[in-house]
């Protein structure tokens, strides 16, 4: 990613450098006297020394001094070498101006208000200092941009690795809970247990393949949830009221994270069913205005400490996956009623935010 980002920026950077230096080297034309429409090229070459010195100072800093000293936290050496470098450039500029000085200018009367020559020299030296600062700022800005891109890429890779790890944990967790339900069926109804195994094979096909994608169409996810509910319904007794409602388009292509709701539904079957008391489970999944909502209500029958039908890891995984996939784009409200007889969970996810 870092190499791609750098290579993508390079043509633009080269173009900016070419245009900038083209302006700088074209600027001396404004100071060249023209006689009979002809350019005094000797005067242009004389003035050319200043932008050329700017270019040398800029690129010596850009390619050598800044990376070698400033990036290595050797600021003192960087300042010292630049001072020496400026003195050398200043002396060379002075020699060049002396060697290329036009003697005919001496005989010309000095224009009134013309500043002394040393002010021009001071102007050029201050401009060189500014060029050094500009070179360091541009190079450090480019380095910061590259480092920031690399940091974001590393964060994305870590998030993808964590997400993959969560998916890998979710598969055996889901399978374990389902097998526990089938095991319970075998003891009192072998026919239903066989039917449950067939339903489980359909679910596993989705879990093993579609769960490896980051997002799946909502219609496929709802089909999986319907199959899972039918599998769980096999072992429900007559005292359990099961209510489901799916308000989505039949072929909805809205993308949603796979298995993001299944742990909530598992939790409802785990805590919402009692073998002796009347119970109910209500599951409502809807889609509207770029929002997918999963609302679950169930009677609350907390399991005893000896119940090993689940470890509670599912809801923790849901929370972590939501933080990775939908940061600041979801609302999850959950808890029991005041009399602690009903548990409610409402997960709302903004799609396309």
Structural write-up:
This protein is α+β, with helices and mostly antiparallel strands and 353 residues long. It contains nine helices and nine strands. The protein has a five-stranded mixed β-sheet with strand order 4-6-7-9-8, covered by helices on one side. Strands 1-2 form a two-stranded antiparallel ribbon. A two-stranded antiparallel sheet has the order 3-5. β6 (279-288) and β7 form a beta hairpin. α6 (190-209) runs antiparallel to α7 (218-233). The protein starts with a helix and ends with a strand. Residues 1-5 have low confidence and may be disordered.
Please name the defining characteristics of this protein.
353 residues; alpha+beta; two-stranded antiparallel sheet; 9 helices; disordered N terminus
Task: Kindly summarize this structure in a few lines.
The chain has nine helices and nine strands.
């Amino acid at each position: 990613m870092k190499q791609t980002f750098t290579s993508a920026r390079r043509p633009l950077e080269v173009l900016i450098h070419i245009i900038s230096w083209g302006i700088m080297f074209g600027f001396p034309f404004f100071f060249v006297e023209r006689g009979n429409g002809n350019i005094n090229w000797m005067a242009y070459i004389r003035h050319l020394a200043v932008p050329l010195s700017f270019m040398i100072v800029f690129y010596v800093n850009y390619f050598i001094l800044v990376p070698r000293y400033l990036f290595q936290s050797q600021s003192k050496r960087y300042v010292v070498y630049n001072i020496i470098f400026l003195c050398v450039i200043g002396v060379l500029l002075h020699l060049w101006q002396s060697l290329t000085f036009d003697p005919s200018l001496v005989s010309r009367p000095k224009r009134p208000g013309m500043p002394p020559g040393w002010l021009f020299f001071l102007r050029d030296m201050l401009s060189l200092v500014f060029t050094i600062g500009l070179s360091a700022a541009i190079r450090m800005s480019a380095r910061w941009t590259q480092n920031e891109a690399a940091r974001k890429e590393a964060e994305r890779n870590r998030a993808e690795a964590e997400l993959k790890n969560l998916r890998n944990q979710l598969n055996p967790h889901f399978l374990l809970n389902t097998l526990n339900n089938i095991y319970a069926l075998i003891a009192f109804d072998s026919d239903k247990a066989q039917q449950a195994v067939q339903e489980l094979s359909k679910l596993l096909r989705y879990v093993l393949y579609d769960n490896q994608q980051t997002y799946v169409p909502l219609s496929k996810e709802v089909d999986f949830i319907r199959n899972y509910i039918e599998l769980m319904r096999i072992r429900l007794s007559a005292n359990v009221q099961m209510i489901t409602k799916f308000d989505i388009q039949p072929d909805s292509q809205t993308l949603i994270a796979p298995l993001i709701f299944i742990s909530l539904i598992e939790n409802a079957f785990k805590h919402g069913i009692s073998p002796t008391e009347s119970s109910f489970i209500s599951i409502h999944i809807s889609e509207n205005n770029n929002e997918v909502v999963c609302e679950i209500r169930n009677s609350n029958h907390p399991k005893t400490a000896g119940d090993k039908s689940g470890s509670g890891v599912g809801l923790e995984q849901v929370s972590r996956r939501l933080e990775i996939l939908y940061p600041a784009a979801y609302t999850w409200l959950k808890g029991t009623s005041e009399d602690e007889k009903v548990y409610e969970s409402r997960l709302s996810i903004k799609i396309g935010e």
